[in-house]
Amino acid sequence: MSAQTEIITFGCRLNAYESEVMRARAGDLADTVIVNTCAVTAEAERQARQAIRKARRRRPDARIIVTGCAAQIDPEAYAAMPEVDQVLGNAEKLRLDEFIGGARVQVNDIAAVRETAGHLIAGFDGRARAFVQVQNGCDHRCTFCIIPRGRGPNRSVPMGEVAAEIRRLVAAGFNEAVLTGVDIASYGADLPGRPTLGQLVRRLLAAVPELARLRLSSLDPAAIDPDLLRAIAEEERLMPHLHFSLQAGDDMILKRMKRRHNHAQAVAVCAQVRRLRPDVAFGADLIAGFPTETEAMFARTLDLVADCGLTFLHVFPYSPRPGTPAARMPQVAPATRKARAARLRAAGEDALARFLTQRVGGAAAVLVERGAEGRTEHFAPIRLRAPAAPGSVVGARVTGRDGMTLLGEAA
C-alpha cells in the first residue's frame, strides 16, 4: 500500500484486525484516507466524524473512504458529509479493490452474509502482537447494543484455517496472537460438529507449538465451555488474563439488558477460573447509568469489582443508540451517567494499583511493544530498564511501579 494511504481505526480489536486486512489487500491506493468507524457509542461516532473533517483539512486532495460498523448501520449519514468520497460496508471493505471506483455507497445486507469470517493477511503494521479473527457477528440481542446490525449473525472460521493463519504469523516473527471477534465465546456454533472456543484453543496450542503466547479478547461469562476451563488450567501458553463482557452487577439491570448471566453467576465464573489458575487477572466491560439504574443498582455494579476481583476495567457511560430497546426505556440523566462512570473508573484504578503493587518483586514474561515498553503475561504495562527488540518476549524481574506502569529489568 502506498505511503500516501492512511487508515484511521476506531473501536475494537476486530476493527484493528480488519484495518490490517485492508492494508494488506487494498494494493496501491494513492492519496487515500480510509476511516474505519465504530458504532458502540455515540462518542465513537462523534470522534469518527471529527476525524473525517480533520482528514479533509489535512489532505484536501485525498480520497476519503468511510467504512466500519457506523457506516454499515447508517451509510447515508456518512455519504451526506461533504468530506466523504465513498462509503463501504463491513463486507465490502475487506474486498476494497473490487469496490473502489464503483458506486459512491456500497453496503451489503449484512444480516444475510454467511461467508467465512477469516481473512488471511501478511502482517500487522507496527504491532508487536497479531490479531486473528476467528468469528464475526452475534446472535444475541442485548437491548443496548447496535452491533448486530453492523456485523450480522454469528459465523466462525474453521479451526484448520485459524491454525494455518497462526502458523503464518509465527513464521513472520510474531510471538503472541490474540483471538478476536464480536462474540468469540459463541465460536463454532455454526460449524459442523459445533466445536467450542475451548476446543479451538486446545487445538491451536497443540498444532502450533512454536507459538509462545495465545491471548483471548472479550468473553461472555455465560458461555465459558469446559474445554476452555481445562485449557486455562493446563495451558501455560494461554495467557492468565481474561476480559469479560459483564456490563453491570445488578440483576434487574442485567435482565433489562437481556444479558445471559446474573451477579452471582459472574462471581462464580471468576472464582472457578481463579481456582484453576490462581495468578489470573480479570478485566471487564462495564456500563454506567443504564436506563432505570438507581443508585442502589449502581452500587451492585461497584460491588462487582471487588466480588469478582476485577483488575482492568473498560467503563462506558451508557450511550443510547437509536433503534435499540434500551433507547426507549426511561433514561438516567447524562450528568449522573458521567459521574457514575467516573466512580467506576476510580474503583478500577484502585484495583489496578493494588494488583500492580502485588507484582513488585516477582517475575514477568514481557512482550516488548516498543523500546523498553511492553506488557506482562497479565497484560499489565511495564517499562524495562533497557530497550529490547519489539515483538520479543523477555524474562524480567519487577522492581517497582510508576503510577499504573510496572518497572522491571531483564532477568
Question: What would you note in describing this structure?
Answer:
With 411 residues, the chain is an alpha/beta fold. Among the domains are: 6-108, Methylthiotransferase, N-terminal domain (Rossmann fold); 363-410, OB fold (Dihydrolipoamide Acetyltransferase, E2P), CATH 2.40.50. The protein is built from 13 helices and 18 strands. The protein has helices at 13-25, 42-58, 69-73, 75-79, 96-99, 147-151, 159-171, 197-207, 226-234, 251-257, 263-276, 295-308, 334-359; strands spanning 6-9, 32-37, 63-68, 86-88, 105-106, 130-133, 135-136, 155-156, 176-180, 213-216, 241-247, 281-288, 310-317, 363-370, 373-375, 381-384, 393-402, 405-410. It has a 5-stranded parallel sheet, with helices on both faces. A 5-stranded mixed β-barrel has the order 14-15-16-18-17. Strand 12, helix 12 (295-308) and strand 13 (310-317) form a beta-alpha-beta unit. The mean pLDDT is 91.
Strand content: 15-25%
Q: Which structural class matches the secondary elements? A: alpha/beta
Name of the top-level CATH class of the domain at 6-108: Alpha Beta
Specify the helix fraction band.
25-40%
Give the C-alpha Rg.
21 Å
How many E strands? Answer: 18
- Known CATH architecture of the domain at 6-108: 3-Layer(aba) Sandwich
The average pLDDT score comes to 91
Largest sheet: 5 strands, parallel
Q: Enumerate the strands of the largest sheet in spatial order, edge to edge or round the barrel.
A: 1-2-3-4-5
Distinct helical segment count: 13
Which consecutive residue ranges, at least 5 long each, have pLDDT under 50?
none
Distance between the termini: 40 Å
CATH topology of the domain at 6-108: Rossmann fold
Global morphology:
globular
CATH superfamily of the domain at 6-108: Methylthiotransferase, N-terminal domain
